[in-house]
Write a structure and sequence with these properties.
The protein is of the alpha/beta class. The protein is 35% helix and 22% strand. The longest helix has 21 residues. The chain is globular, with a radius of gyration of 22 Å.
Length: 225
């Protein structure tokens, strides 16, 4: 009888050990919220809904962002996407986070310090000049920024010199064909995006349409422009 009890106790302890080691410790996962397992930083409360609309991991995968790459983010704000970009490119990569809002960038700087990111460089830019160094970027990126620009062509033109010879431009923009509020908020149609990019010296490589409310535009500089 004693042997059976010891055997039962051993099995119970083994089961308990399995549960405590395999069950997610992250409170968000326990609550049923989908969280990227590789994330090593804190997501702010207001960002969660927007991350569902524009899943950062899927966007980075579609762009082809890899560890070691150098990316310049235009209109980084408080860093909703910056943190994901920095996490993806890793210590061997670099993120140049640009914005004209100094207070937003101060908040981003605090986030980077809190979460231990040393691969993010803050850049206070100008309305038409992001301030990136020439021939420095694998990717120039903007999300939820384009429709706020009164005239996006000048800043697009100023992005061209910052790209490496094989560098690309990636823009996530709300699509008026997908959302009822698109025209009201000034979302750019695919036709307008293609024309703007052409006027700025870019050609569309592809348009990704997997997002429910937005489109992702991948473009490269026109060599002969």
């Amino acid at each position: 009888m004693k042997t059976k009890r010891l055997k039962f106790l051993f099995l119970a302890l083994l089961l308990l050990s399995f549960i405590t080691t395999s069950y997610p410790k992250n409170a968000e996962i326990r609550a049923g919220i989908k969280v990227d397992q590789q994330r090593s930083f804190q997501v702010e409360e207001w960002e969660k809904g927007l991350n569902e609309r524009q899943p950062p991991v899927k966007i980075m995968d579609a762009i082809g962002l890899k560890p070691g790459m150098i990316i310049g983010e235009v209109g980084a704000g408080t860093g909703r996407m910056t943190m994901w970009l920095a996490d993806r490119v890793g210590e061997s990569g670099k993120v140049y986070a640009n914005d004209i809002d100094r207070s937003a960038l101060d908040h981003l700087r605090r986030r980077c310090k809190r979460d231990g990111f040393k691969n993010v460089e803050i850049i206070v830019g100008k309305m038409e000049d992001p301030g990136f160094r020439s021939d420095s970027l694998d990717v120039a990126f903007m999300i939820n920024v384009y429709h706020h620009l009164a005239d996006p062509v000048p800043i697009l033109r100023n992005l061209r010199p910052s790209l490496k010879p094989d560098g690309m431009l990636a823009i996530v923009e709300c699509d008026p064909d997908k959302v009822e509020w698109g025209d009201e908020h000034g979302c750019s149609s695919q036709e307008d995006m293609i024309q703007d990019l052409k006027n700025a010296g870019f050609e569309i490589v592809r348009i990704e349409t997997f997002l429910e409310e937005d489109s992702l535009y991948i473009a490269r500089p026109i060599i002969s422009f």
